[in-house]
Here is the input.
Amino acid sequence: MILEPFQYFSPTSIAEAQEILLKYGDGAKILAGGQSLIPIMKMGLEIPCIVDIKNISELNFVRESNGRIEIGALTKYNEIEDSDSIRKKMPLLSKTVSGIGHPLVRNRGTIGGSLAHCDPAADLCVTSLALDGTIIIASPDGKTRSVPADEFFKGPLTTDLQHGEILHSVSFPLSKEKTGYDIQKLTLGHGDFPLLVVSVFLNFDGNRFYRVRIAFGGVAETAVRSIECENYLEGKETISEQDIEKVSEMAMELLEAPVSLELSQEYTRHMIGVYTGRALRNALQLVMG
Ligand SMILES: Cc1cc2nc3c(=O)[nH]c(=O)nc-3n(C[C@H](O)[C@H](O)[C@H](O)COP(=O)(O)OP(=O)(O)OC[C@H]3O[C@@H](n4cnc5c(N)ncnc54)[C@H](O)[C@@H]3O)c2cc1C
Here is the structure.
């Protein structure tokens, strides 16, 4: 479908972008990689004013500081995938982005765009919960505010972002001890958007598991963590096959509504259990290996 006419701006600073966003109000929309916004516009959504942020270089960075990795909102999936420091220090994030869509999507899609778009089954929304991500938001008054990922996602395609605000970056704490991780997802075809996602992150101090994170996409209105599943495993000296089966059964109860017209409730519930078990076994192998 041919897009409706719109005004196009290409600011080079956050302040300039915010000035345009405030001036054009609800009619203005940020464009990052365009991998979600353009398809929606092609479906007929009229957006009178596009604010293309791709030339705001201050939003494109990967840096390490104070025991955290910070990633600018405009950092593309393939840049995250190619980052040595992320591969070494935050391999779950590398694994997550390398499984998104196909090369064209990964060459254009941005971490900020994925989190701001807030699809309930987006891989990065799920993994940002598993990695205790914090979203840094640039407010129009020139200040920034920080929101934990589990408070940022409010509903399908709805976040804590207010009008005029720009998602600036995401920050993740680095782990000091041994970690295990995995992401599993269900798609209808290779490169398709996922219907279900399970992301697991285990920390082990040599004696006990701590900071166990199990996050899900596609089971509820937003990506969610299961505190119940996490608490069941936290503090254990070992995680047995029975523990994994128990947690997989607990995870199956999380399903709130059908995730897709293509899958039955029963099949979806079953697959949540299968993927939770698989992700936990793979994560455990990395801790113990
Ligand atoms: C064929 C295909 C396959 C895909 N497969 C997957 C997949 O397997 N897994 C997956 O998770 N996703 C998948 N996607 C979606 C993809 O990840 C999108 O790139 C992502 O959802 C949006 O990122 P973007 O940079 O393209 O954002 P855009 O499309 O440019 O923007 C998306 C939304 O976020 C807002 N926005 C963008 N950046 C900011 C910012 N910095 N501050 C505030 N608001 C902002 C925009 O206004 C818009 O509302 C797929 C997409 C396609 C087309």
